[in-house]
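Risk register update: the risk of archive-format incompatibility is retired. Evidence:
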Amino acid sequence: MSEASDELLYEVADGVGRATINRPQRRNALSWGVISGLRDVLARAKDDPAVRVIVLTGAGDKAFCAGADLTGMASGAGYLDLHDGRGQLARLFDDMWTLGKPIIARVRGYALAGGFGLALACDFIVAADDAQFGTPEINVGLWPYMITVPLTRSMPPKKALELMLTGRRVDAAEAERIGFVNRVVPVDALDAATDELAASLAAKSPAIVKLGRDSFYSVWDQPAAEALKLLHSMLTITSYTEDAAEGIAAFAEKREPQWKGR
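Archived output:
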């Protein structure tokens, strides 16, 4: 199954939904249409049992996403409309974290500003060795307010502050050292590495993936005592799922589990 719009492509195959920002002539910069389209795609994927994993990428070979389309997004909008529209990126991040399914960012070329934040809001980043990351907003008299949360969730806070204050670019090798990129591969191996990770995730129990991933994001900012109370309850809930029983039975019988997603 595949669908297309002018700015966002989406297809589903083998348990993987692939969303592609389709603005290569603008280095896949974020427009209102792209952000709204991504929210629509995630809403559909959330309710689609055929989708177990999302892969997010940008069209062409120059950029994953070079940030917001500063000129296009500012035109024709009043002050209050523009303020509300900027909140769409925050709502998109929340959609991603509450999706209940893993999201992989497949990154070639530039992932800058809002595009950097978009990649960091994914669960994993697989990057080609030509990838570059950064927050250049400071250089044009702006600040990366909306991506502060994914930045500080993905690396040591003082490292995030350094990148925000200097605006410097980080190549793929340094990104992997910092820890916000999961894997760096040559350009010609990017699709295979992304597909391998997506297939591995799609093969897991969708029920346990949802419960576990939801609990991970729920306790991220909680004090330890509160987090442990929630995790204690989640352990009991998980142990009573059909997939947990199937997984244990398959392990005992030395066979592959047959997940039911419940």
